[in-house]
Amino acid sequence: MKTLKVSLFLLLLMGISSFTVTAQNNSKGGGMTVLVKYKTQPTKEDMALKALQELIAKVKKEPHYLSIVLHVDPNDKSNILLYEQWADEDYYKGAHMKTAHLLQFINASRQFLAGPPDISFWKAKN
Q1: Predicted model pTM
Q2: Residue 3, exposed/middle/buried by CB under 10 A (0-12, 13-18, 19+)?
Q3: pLDDT in tens, 80-110
């Protein structure tokens, strides 16, 4: 029960900070939050995490990047979530998706992911 309360508190805290950051970005012309859910192949969790950490280090250098937080499901380590903040939706859906480091990750991910990620896009309600 304590773990559930802590998890709910952290989700609420993330939601409040996400709303503030996203609302500020939207007023500047198109910021958004991206949730990327991955499922790893059995016993390939560590390989996936290492590859994602390497990818994130490169993504942090991109224009319009604001933040990425990597989460792992404590009850099933094969579930991984990226919580991303971007200042420009068009950049994310266009140029970011064509970067060499992302394309390289997508190709390499066949070795450790169970399939393509579930990606959803979110905007703060003003």
Answers
A1: 0.76
A2: exposed
A3: 999 999 999 999 999 999 999 999 999 999 9
| Distance (Å, whole) CA 24 – CA 47 | 36
Q: What is the pLDDT of residue 2?
A: 52
Q: Which domain holds residue 38?
A: 2-122
Domain count, the chain: 1
d(CA 52, CA 54): 5
Listed in sequence order, the residues at least 6 apart from 62 whose beta carbon sits closer than 8 Å to its beta carbon are 91, 96, 99
The DSSP call for residue 88 is -
Q: Does residue 32 come out as left (phi exceeding 0), alpha (psi in the -120 to 50 range) or beta?
A: beta
Q: What is the CATH number of the domain that holds 12?
A: 3.30.70.100
Cα–Cα distance measured from residue 30 to residue 88, given in angstroms and rounded to the nearest whole number: 5
**Distance (Å, whole) CA 18 – CA 25:** 10
Question: Up-side HSE of residue 12: CA atoms within 13 Å toward CB?
Answer: 6
